[in-house]
Each structure stands twice: as C-alpha cells, then as structure tokens.
C-alpha cells in the first residue's frame, strides 16, 4: 500500500468534532494505562516477592507475564476490531483491564497475581494500537499532530513513570495500590468510550472465515519468542531444554503465520505492509527505537543502584528527565510537522539518539545521577522527534482501511524491540564484565612491586590480630576489579546502542513526506 492509494483530500477539509476529540482522549488514557503498567511493578518486585513467598526467578514472571500477553494480543487487535467493532472492543478491553487490575490488587499468592497480570496484558495490549487507529480514523490529517503528540507522550512516559509511581505507592501505602489506581481511571475511560463511539459500529470479519493458521501462529510464535528473549539469559539460553523447546515452538508458530499469509482470504495481520518501503522503514526504525527505550530504562537504574546506591525513586528521577522534551515540544508540534520534512526530522532524531548513547560511554565508578542529565535530555528530545514523526509517517504510509493493521505492526515492533534489547543487554553485559575482569586481572601481576606493596599495606591495615589481613586485602582487590569491570562493561553497552542506532540512519531517507496538511492547524 502506497501513498498513492490514499484519496485526495477535499478542498474544504472537515474539522474534528468534540466527540472525535473525546475519542482521542479515551484512546490516550487507555494507552497510558497499558504502557504504565508494563513497568509499574518493577520497583515493587522485592516487596511482592516477600509477601507472596516467591523466589527471585518466580517473581520476574509478574513482569514477564504482562509483556508476553501484550505482545501476543497487539497484532491481533486489527482482526478483533474487524470482528466485533472498535467500540465493543474498547469497552471489553477496558472492562477486563479493570477486572484484572482488581484481581492483581487482591492477590495473596503468586499464581493469582500472574493470572491477573496476564489478563492485564491481554486487555492492555488492545488499548495501545487502538489509540493509534482512533487518531488515524477520527482526526483529519491537519489535526492528527495533536493526537499523535498525546499518544507519543504516553508511549514514552508510561514505561519511565511506571517504576517511579509503583515505588512511591509501595512505600506510601502498599504494592496493591499499584493496581487499584487503575480502577478510577478505567471508570473514566469506560464513560468516554460510551460517549464518544457510535453504538452501531459493527465488525465486518467472520469467525468462519478467520485466518486460524495466522492467529495460532501469532500466539505461539510471538508468545514463545518473547519468553525466550525474557528468560533466555536466566536459563543460560540453549543450555536449557525449556528454552530449546520454546524456540522450536516459536519457529512452528511463525511457519503457521506464513501459511496464513499465503492462503487466507484475509490474513489476521497484513504483514505485506512491511514490504512497502516507507512503512517497512518505519517498522525497522521503531524496532530499534524500542531496543534503545527499554534498554536505557534497564541500564541506568541498574548502574545507579550498584555503583551509587540509588533506590528506585532516585533512579526514576534520572529516567524521567527524558520525558521533559516531549512535554515542552507539544505546543510546537503542528509547526514542526508543517515545517520540517519527516526524513530530516528522523535523521536528526536518530543522530541525537546515537549521540546520547555515546555521551554515556565515559562512565566511571564515581559517576552519579547528575552525570546522565545531558544524555537524558538529548535522548528525550530524540525520542520525541522519532515517535511523533514515525507515528505520523506510519499513518501517512497506509490507507485509512489499513490503519488498524499498521497500528498493530507499529506498536508490536516497539515492544518486540524492547524484548530484544533487554535480552541482548543482559547477555552482552555478562560477557563484557567477564572480559574486562580477565583483562584487568592479567594486568595486575602478583610479582609487581607496586601490587606487592599495596597488598602489604592493605593487609597490615586490615589485620587486627586475626591473621586475616591478607585475605581481606585480596577481597578488596577483587571488589575493585569487579567494580571497574562492571563500569567498563556499561560503557560498552551504551557504545553498542549507539552503533545499532547509527546503522538505522540511512533508513530515514526512504521515508515518504507526510500527507499534505498533516499537522497543520487552521
């Protein structure tokens, strides 16, 4: 599908009504809850683990189950919209999100909590791409910029604000309130959906003609692959029969998806959109965007916790700096879309994202949160530009009829990129720490007079008549080696992120200009 397939706009373009804007507001609120809940339990996991009697590995499934469910359901949202209609789908998703949020809040054991989180992910995953669809179908091109900005703010700020809000609620009241907070928001969302969406909107898909090969393939393929990416590092990858089995199932799932694409009358998801050079470029850049967004959310708090002793709230205050540019840019978004070509904006955004990663390649053991201020502000500006323009470029690259499929693909690419990034960062981190530990240890010769003098001095300092001075001196030396190796590994990780982003810059040149009038306010 190309831009040529999009009908010319009438001379006197319609204006969005109040009902249209209420629909956009509803979509934005739904997307905000869904993206916020991806990470809202991250800071609370140690507390939850203790209260429900779970091991550290088991507790990670509180977060993983949500992400897996969300990744599975997002690409099915376009088919479900065609099946039951947008209004019915939104009402169902918001209702079940409320129900499963309450189940999570009432949970007294790990099994119930994981069931609740899985239900949240399935319901929340429907609220993210439908927000994109609402913008594309309810707003004229000249007013889509505002809707895009609101959606972009939720997608970027949601995962960042989640740990801060979750940590604050846990410390102030209880971890249960990280879920109860959704109830009043969902009540508002349900009211808006009932008000802003026509009740006679019915789906045009039929269960009998459904692409069941494609549906099964998406559920099995994406679900298993996400678990592999999330749990692979902890399970030592292919040394684990569990990971090997899931990988085989994932391949089987994607083969089933390919069969559906080939033979179904109407495939469950229109993957052919990716073959379009403009939308395909949006998809790949969004994938890398997800890699960086979720990797940074993982790397910075971990570095600050281990090196400077920051708690979740302090680390969250560093992360939230990247959300400031989005808020500051919102009043200027229509002017930006009217003035700056999408290719220039995306090249600039990717270049700034690359530079922000490179700024974080000079970390030391003395680095504190303030050292990330410049890179976080630059990263936030890059993320704002990229999300806004990629979102609008995705809308402009397809027809209104294909907007639900484009929304599903655009959003699943970002989440899938996040899973790939987290898996890659965890694996690369372990490898680089081991590498640097070995290199530093090789550089410290036991026969070196400087080393011997240091060990003798530290041994004497620690020996309080117990005879353990030398042993404690070696322990201190090992700790310092580990700390330096850890810092050097993180420098390598940010360098790797910068390199990956740099590789995607040429893709920006393939994008098509936005549709005439996009972002203009009259």
TrEMBL record:
Signal peptide residue numbers: none
Q: Where is the Major facilitator superfamily (MFS) profile domain?
A: 23-516
**Entry keywords, A to Z:** Cell membrane, Membrane, Transmembrane, Transmembrane helix, Transport
Q: Using the UniProt record, give the first listed, main subcellular location.
A: membrane
Q: Which GO terms describe its cellular component?
A: plasma membrane
Which superkingdom heads the taxonomic lineage of this protein's source?
Bacteria
Where are the membrane-spanning stretches?
A: 21-41, 61-81, 88-108, 148-169, 175-198, 210-229, 241-259, 279-300, 312-333, 340-359, 493-511
Q: Which CDD domains match?
A: MFS_LmrB_MDR_like
The protein's location, in the record's own words, is: Cell membrane
The terms under GO molecular function for this entry are: transmembrane transporter activity
Q: Tell me the membrane topology, using the record's own terms.
A: Multi-pass membrane protein
As for family, the record states: Belongs to the major facilitator superfamily. EmrB family.
According to UniProt, the name of this protein is DHA2 family efflux MFS transporter permease subunit
Q: Which organism is it from?
A: Pontixanthobacter rizhaonensis
């Amino acid at each position: 599908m190309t831009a040529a397939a999009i009908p010319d706009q009438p001379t006197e373009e319609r204006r969005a009504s109040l009902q249209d804007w209420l629909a956009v507001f509803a979509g934005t609120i739904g997307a905000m809850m869904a993206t916020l809940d991806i990470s809202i339990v991250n800071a609370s996991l140690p507390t939850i683990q203790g209260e429900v009697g779970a091991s550290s590995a088991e507790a990670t499934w509180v977060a993983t189950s949500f992400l897996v469910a969300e990744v599975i359901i997002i690409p099915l949202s376009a088919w479900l919209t065609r099946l039951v209609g947008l209004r019915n789908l939104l009402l169902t998703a918001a209702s079940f999100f409320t129900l499963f949020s309450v189940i999570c809040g009432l949970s007294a054991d790990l099994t119930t909590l994981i069931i609740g989180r899985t239900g949240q992910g399935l319901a929340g995953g429907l609220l993210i791409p439908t927000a994109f669809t609402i913008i594309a179908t309810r707003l004229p091109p000249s007013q889509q910029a505002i809707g895009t900005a609101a959606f972009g703010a939720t997608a970027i700020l949601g995962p960042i604000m989640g740990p801060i809000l979750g940590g604050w609620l846990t410390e102030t009241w209880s971890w249960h309130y990280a879920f109860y907070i959704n109830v009043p928001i969902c009540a508002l969302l349900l009211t808006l959906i009932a008000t802003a969406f026509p009740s006679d909107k019915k789906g045009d898909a039929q269960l009998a003609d459904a692409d069941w090969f494609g549906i099964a393939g998406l559920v099995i393929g994406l679900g298993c692959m996400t678990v592999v990416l999330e749990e692979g590092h902890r399970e030592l990858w292919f040394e684990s029969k569990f990971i090997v089995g899931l990988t085989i199932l994932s391949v089987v799932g994607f083969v089933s998806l390919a069969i559906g694409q080939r033979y179904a009358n109407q495939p469950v998801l229109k993957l052919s959109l990716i073959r379009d050079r403009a939308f395909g470029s949006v998809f790949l850049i969004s994938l890398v965007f997800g890699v960086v967004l979720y990797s940074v959310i993982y790397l910075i708090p971990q570095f600050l916790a281990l090196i400077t002793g920051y708690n979740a709230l302090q680390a969250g205050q560093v992360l939230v700096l990247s959300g400031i540019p989005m808020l500051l840019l919102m009043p200027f978004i229509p002017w930006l879309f009217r003035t700056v070509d999408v290719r220039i904006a995306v090249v600039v955004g990717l270049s700034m994202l690359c530079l922000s990663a490179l700024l974080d390649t000079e970390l030391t053991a003395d680095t504190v949160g303030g050292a990330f201020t410049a890179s976080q502000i630059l990263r936030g500006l890059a993320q704002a530009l990229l999300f806004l323009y990629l979102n609008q470029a995705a809308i402009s690259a397809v027809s209104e009829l294909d907007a639900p499929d484009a929304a599903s693909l655009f959003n699943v690419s970002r989440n899938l990129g996040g899973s790939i990034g987290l898996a890659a960062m965890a694996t690369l981190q372990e490898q680089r720490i081991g590498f640097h530990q070995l290199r530093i240890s090789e550089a410290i010769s036991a026969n070196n007079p400087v080393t011997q003098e240091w060990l003798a001095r530290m041994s004497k300092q620690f020996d309080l008549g117990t005879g353990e001075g030398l042993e404690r001196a070696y322990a201190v030396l090992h700790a310092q080696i580990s700390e330096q190796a850890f810092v050097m590994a993180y420098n390598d990780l940010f360098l790797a992120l910068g390199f990956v982003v740099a590789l995607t810059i040429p893709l920006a040149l393939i994008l098509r200009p936005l549709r005439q009038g996009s972002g203009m306010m009259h």
